[in-house]
Specification:
Elements lengths: L5 H15 L2 H17 L3 H17 L3 H7 L1
Helix pairs in contact: 1-2, 2-3
Amino acid sequence: ESPPDLGQDINDAVNGLRHAGEQHLIIIGLLTRAWHRHLTSDTVGAVADLDEAWEISELGPCPSFKRMFC
């Protein structure tokens, strides 16, 4: 049996959160994916996820997440 593809599982989770419209949870998913991408040397993808999480925190009802970055 092959090992699970954690990256794909995380992508699926982020997409599911997008579909559900849960902005505050999308941020958590993006931070998780950024962490995974960093660990797998996908720096460009990690930065893109962090940028998106920051943007959502600025636009949405999630100012506490923005404080985590500062």
